[in-house]
């Protein structure tokens, strides 16, 4: 039986995942979202959705209420748990570089006139390079294997040597701090270039540039939470550290969907247009108004 925390994860996660799927479909098909910025955001949404799905074996592995769900996988297809754990570490780099790509896109649109054409043509290639890099970077990490203690009825990670643990701490701090510094630098430089360019743009283009900047800045700030977790993790018990990691990971994973809802009016209006319940209500209101107008004509006659 699941305890409270996994139920909370599952509840807000399922709602957020459905929202991400809806947004990915809208951004890919709706005519309002033809700008290349939305191609980058769509890729970010899709990759983060897969990231969230992949976290579930790892977030349940060391919980008492997760044994009954994970043990059959361990006994019948043990390699699946290792692959999931490996991919979870790959996603550290994918999420980081996806955030950096959003910033780079924002910067390039502030500097180059034809950047939209470039990103529309090569965004898939950019993300393919990110995937290859992320898998290669993960090779540098010392990964624990997992064993099940049948007497204690609990999973236990195999112990790493002190040298391996030190290497892992340096690895995580180096990459997370490096990614964050790159994002902060590119974000700051982007704001400077955007302010210079805004004065020469039409009001409609100004609105698009501001919207892209707000989305980029908000996403960057939320990503900083991952660095704060890394700073705090040595002071937490391992199980608590995993719980904090998964919660922070969820905040980063789902953040883009809610940032779009907050800052992008086109996204909100597109969702209102596509939700059947809203359309049904609008149809009933229109029918009522039409009937009311017809009645008014009859009375006037």
UniProtKB/TrEMBL annotation:
Membrane-protein topology: Multi-pass membrane protein
PANTHER family: SERPENTINE RECEPTOR CLASS GAMMA (PTHR31114), SERPENTINE RECEPTOR CLASS GAMMA-RELATED (PTHR31114:SF4)
Highest taxon of the lineage: Eukaryota
Organism the protein comes from: Caenorhabditis brenneri (Nematode worm)
GO biological process terms held by the UniProt record: sensory perception of chemical stimulus
Database matches in InterPro entries: 7TM_GPCR_serpentine_rcpt_Srg, NRL-Serpentine_Class_Gamma
Chain segments annotated as transmembrane: 12-29, 36-55, 79-102, 122-141, 170-192, 213-232, 244-263
Name of the protein described by the UniProt record: Serpentine receptor class gamma
Locations listed in the record: Membrane
Family classification: Belongs to the nematode receptor-like protein srg family.
Gene Ontology CC: one annotated term: membrane
GO molecular function: transmembrane signaling receptor activity
Main location: membrane
UniProt entry keywords in alphabetical sequence: Membrane, Transmembrane, Transmembrane helix
